[in-house]
């Protein structure tokens, strides 16, 4: 039995020495990562560096990694992808409640839709919603499951810049209220700095950079410390900061 102190200090996510190969190609090469309960970690890395591979492993979607040891995650994990993955033949509330049963779950679904600003749209069809609204439904679907770990793979990558900024504010609020541990995969350095408590960079199969973003929220792009973080992270990604 774990003691109370162990319960409090135990990370929500612990990855140790994770290796993932596809044929001869080693994508994850002894990767270590811990995420504390309630901590928001953003994962950056060049295209093909293995970000989605890591996220899929944590989500339990990679059968070849599952059960191999090296990964400890909470029992209750939700995933949000770049496309909302709503079922077009189900109305909004039905989509939120997929896999959930009972009155309490229905109430959580309704509350989650209200939290993402979609109260009154429960009976809409996905096709009647904008891309940003569909991603809100996807967020509500995750929230209704009250996850201890939220995994997000470029959830705003397909949205226009203005909608993305609104979604940042929404995600920040939701995470502050519900406090899941979060791993957000993104290509967007600014998005990582705006949202995360920590930003990690994946390179050559392991975490190459691990930076705590100790700036008050909401964060301003004009804050010189924001710019310092951006510059450091862009350098880590091999991009020149003009
Ligand atoms: N099922 C698979 N079979 C073979 N190779 C794969 C498979 N899944 C991923 N890979 C390879 O693993 C590497 C990492 O892919 P992954 O999708 O994790 O990268 P990523 O960092 O998420 O990239 P991006 O930023 O472009 O989305 C790539 O070289 C990719 O081709």
Automatic annotation (TrEMBL):
InterPro entries reported in the protein's UniProt record: AAA+_ATPase, ABC_transporter-like_ATP-bd, ABC_transporter-like_CS, ABC_transporter_ATP-bind, P-loop_NTPase
Keyword Transmembrane helix: no
GO molecular function: ATP binding; ATP hydrolysis activity
Top-level taxon of origin: Bacteria
PROSITE patterns: ABC_TRANSPORTER_1 (PS00211), ABC_TRANSPORTER_2 (PS50893)
Alphabetized UniProt keyword annotations: ATP-binding, Cell membrane, Membrane, Nucleotide-binding, Translocase, Transport
Start and end residues of each ABC transporter domain: 13-229
Signal peptide: none
Name used for this protein in its record: Aliphatic sulfonates import ATP-binding protein SsuB 1
Native source organism of the sequence: Virgisporangium aurantiacum
